[in-house]
Structure formats: C-alpha cells, structure tokens
Design a protein that fits this description.
This protein is α/β, with parallel strands linked by helices and 473 residues long. The protein has four domains: 129 residues, Rossmann fold (3-Layer(aba) Sandwich), CATH 3.40.50.2300; 170 residues, P-loop containing nucleotide triphosphate hydrolases (Rossmann fold, 3-Layer(aba) Sandwich); 91 residues, Helicase, Ruva Protein, domain 3 (Orthogonal Bundle); 50 residues, Arc Repressor Mutant, subunit A, CATH 1.10.10.60. It is 47% helix and 12% strand. It has 20 helices and 14 strands. Strands 2-1-3-4-5 form a five-stranded parallel beta sheet, sandwiched between helices. A five-stranded parallel beta sheet has the order 7-10-13-6-14. α1 links the parallel β1 and β2. α10 crosses α12 and α14 packs across α18. It starts with 8 loop residues before the first strand and ends with a helix.
Length: 473
C-alpha cells in the first residue's frame, strides 16, 4: 500500500530523451523535485501501481503502445491521476478525443516552458484537492486518528476536540495554508504542531508571533537578508521560511500585522517564492504555512485591518478551537495534569485536589482558557501546604473574584449581563430570587459553587435560602 506521506510524483512519458530531460529541467526550476522519466510507455501502468503519482505528461505517438490506447486505461484504473497529453499532432479530432477520455490538458510540441509548467501546476492542484477531499471523507468516518501520537500533547476527553483531530489529520498532507482561530489561551500552537506532526513533513516546525511587526522587520524575519542589504547587515541571515523549508511555519497573531506586511505575505503565498533582502533572484520553497489569530477575521476585514484576499488565501483550510468553557469535560483532566506538572517544577509533592474544586472550576468562565487554568494550578501549588488541596489556594475561585471574572468576560463579548422586559421591572426581592435560582441551576444545585458565582459566602447564601423557602425548592 502506498503511504499517504509519500509525495506525489510527476511522470514524464516520451520516447525522445532530449524532450524528457528538457521538460524535467523546466519542472525542477519550477520547484518540483519528485519527477520520473519513462521512454517506454509499457512500464507506465505498473509504475502507477507502485508509486503515488499525481500527474502524467503523456506523449501520444510512441512505439509499442499508442498513447491514445493507454489514456483510457489510466483514467479507468487510476482516476485520481491527472493526465496531460503532449504531442506533435495538430488534429482537432485527436484533441477532442483525448479530452473526452479524461485528459486534463492537450499541449502541442514543441511545448512552451511556461505553458507546460502552468498546466502541471493546475493538474497537481486538482490532484491535491481531490486527495484532500477523499482523505477528509475517510477520516471523518473513523472514530480515532490514524496517527494518535501526533496529538499526544493535547489532553482531552472532548468529542469536539476529537473531531478536530480527524480534520487535522485529513488536511495535514495538504500543501495549502491552514488558518486556526480561537480565543487567547486555547492552545493554537499545540494544534499547529499536531498538524505538522501528522503531515510526515521532513522539515522543521518553526513558530513565530508576528503581531506588530512592521514591513522591514516582517520581511527580514520571514525571508532573511544578504550581507550588506542594509546598515548593520554584516552577515547573511536565513529567514524563518528557509529554516522551515520542507516543514511548517506557524505564524501566530496574523491579524495584527500591518498592510505592507500583508501584501508581502500574500505574494509569497501566491507565488511560492520569496526574495531575501539584498538578493536579485527569488528563492522557491515548499514550506507549509499555518497561521492563527484570536480575533474574528470577518470583524478584522470589516474594519479594514485584514485584507480580504489574504484571508481567503490563508483559510484554504480553517480550524476553530472551542474555548475551555465549551468543553468542561476536559477541566478535571487538565487540572490534574497541571497540578502534577507544577509540583514537579516546584519540587513539591503532588497535592490531592478535592472534588469540590472541579465543581467550582466547572462553572468558572475561564476567559484565559487552558493557559489560565495552567497558571491557576501553578499558583495554587506554590501556595499549597499539606496533602489535600484547599480551595483557598485557587484565588480566582474565592468569593467576589468569581463574579468579577464572569462579568469581565461578558463585557469582552459585549453581551448584557441581565435582560429586562420592556413591560415589567423586577423588584429587588424578585431579582435576588432570579439570581439565586440561576446560580443554583448553573452550579447543578451545589450551594458552595452557587455562592461563588453570586460573589457571596456560603453562609450568606444559606441565610437567603432559609429566608425565602420557595427559592430553595
């Protein structure tokens, strides 16, 4: 079985060795490296069974077996392979027949180099798109990733996250960009690295936060420079694109770069080549770009902060990571993991968290998501003394702070805390009853958790429940 990690090959079939070698040079200059030459088309079908072939450039007029007889066999046995016919025949009927039999393009000899390279690029793009679509269909029909080790750094019990794993694995082989969105602290870089690990790419994974970089710094950071390119450039510098060649370059906070830097990035994504500062000739690369932003791309576009064409180019594949409050089943697992990690880092015994801790964390909004939970765990371990951990070690869960966090989170989303009817207005007593009832509902009846939501002590909540019996029922 041919591995999904094997790069797709271009096969050139012609009985003229000069044409074969010349065409190979054109494709090498265009950045293609996996090229096979055949001067005997009788070997083609067996080669298609043994290798992952994306495009075949086929000469029609060859000895032993006519290309017109071979073409329908290729499309029947290997419908995923894109076939480009190249021949000296200028007969219109021949071209029409080849296109009906499944050829994607028909080129006349002597072929124009630019025309041939463009045709191969289009054919390879169609092959990649179909391969990705089939991979997504297969992967979404399974229950677990084929390569679970690629996701070992992401601890989760969430069905939503496991669905993302399957999507990541399906698109990981794609050379096209992936855009990851999600709130601050959800772990966008971890998901980007998982995509790289699942892709079987031979190059490195390089990550960079590009927020606020101006055009010159952005260009130098990504593309590097030659010695003498500007004042202070006393030696050559490889940019991040060169460092990540054959691998993945992760650009975090892509929504915060300036207009000029956006144009440079767009051109790089479109042309698959870049120009280091101080160089006259562009450099080609096969690096895969994964970008991320914590901001809503559509909102950035509407405010004129993000180019629409850049967004479309970056979001060829798109992944949204849900916030921690939408996958509460992960909270106990992550809490225990971070407590163990903190204890090891601080050289302390691992504390035992009480069950009440998970009850409180389950209703906490986590505006900082997983990163905030990790910080809370490290702070709690540093404050903890003894064996069983006290809730007092988690400062964010203390009365008053819990309510402030919920309030600030709603303000960030610009959602009113309470909706009032236009026809009636509640009294203070009615409002208190409604708040207590809602707090108990969100806390699943746990009064200590409800008290933390309300910003009062547990004794104060008991007092109010005793005073108003109907609320407690």
């Amino acid at each position: 079985m041919i591995s999904r990690c094997t790069p797709a090959t271009i096969v050139l079939v012609d009985d003229d060795d000069l044409i074969l070698n010349t065409t190979r040079l054109w494709l090498l200059n265009a950045g293609y490296t996996s090229i096979v030459l055949l001067n005997d088309n009788r070997e083609l079908l067996s080669l298609l069974n043994e290798q992952r072939v994306g495009v075949v450039v086929l000469d029609l007029m060859m000895p032993y077996c006519s290309g017109q007889l071979l073409l329908p066999e290729i499309t029947r046995l290997h419908p995923e392979v894109q076939v480009i016919v190249m021949t000296g025949s200028q007969e219109v009927d021949s071209a029409v027949t080849c296109m009906k039999q499944g050829a994607i393009d028909y080129l006349l000899k002597p072929a124009d180099p630019e025309r041939l390279v463009t045709s191969v690029q289009n054919a390879m793009q169609i092959y990649n798109l179909r391969s990705e679509l089939n991979a997504i269909r297969r992967q979404l029909g399974t229950t677990t990733p084929a390569n679970p080790s690629a996701f070992s750094s992401i601890l989760t019990r969430s069905r939503l996250i496991h669905q993302l794993f399957k999507y990541i694995e399906a698109v990981s082989i794609s050379p096209e960009p992936l855009l990851i969105t999600g709130e601050t602290g959800v772990g966008k870089e971890l998901f980007a690295r998982a995509c790289h690990d699942a892709s079987c790419r031979s190059g490195a994974f390089i990550a960079e936060n590009v927020a606020g970089l101006d055009e010159l710094v952005f260009t130098d950071t990504l593309f590097g420079h030659r010695r003498g390119a500007f004042t202070g450039a006393d030696q050559d510098r490889k940019g991040l694109v060169a460092q990540a060649a054959g691998g993945t370059l992760f650009l975090d906070e892509i929504g915060d770069i300036g207009p000029a830097a956006q144009i440079k990035l767009l051109r790089f994504l479109q042309e698959k080549q870049y120009l280091p500062l101080g160089m006259d000739h562009p450099v080609r690369t096969d690096v895969r770009i994964v970008a991320a932003t914590h901001r809503d791309p559509n909102e950035l576009i509407s405010k004129g902060l993000l180019r629409r064409d850049l967004y479309y180019r970056l979001s060829f594949h798109q992944l949204h990571i849900p916030p921690l409050r939408e996958r509460k089943e992960d909270i106990p697992l992550l809490t225990i993991h971070f407590l163990e990690e903190a204890a090891a880092a601080l050289n302390r015994p691992t504390p035992t968290p009480p069950q009440a801790l998970f009850d409180h964390l389950g209703v906490y909004p986590f505006p900082g998501n997983v990163r905030e939970l990790k910080a809370m765990a490290f702070d709690a371990v540093s404050r903890h003394e003894g064996h069983v951990m006290s809730l007092d070690c988690f400062r964010a869960l203390q009365p008053g702070r819990h309510a402030q966090s919920s309030s600030s989170h709603r303000l960030d989303e610009q959602v009113p805390a309470i909706q009032f009817s236009q026809t009636s207005f509640p009294t203070l007593k009615e409002a208190e009853e409604l708040l207590i009832r809602e707090a108990l509902l969100r806390a699943n009846g746990k009064k200590s958790v409800a008290a933390a939501l309300l910003g009062i002590t547990r004794q104060a909540l008991y007092s109010r429940l005793t005073t108003n019996k109907p609320t407690a029922s």
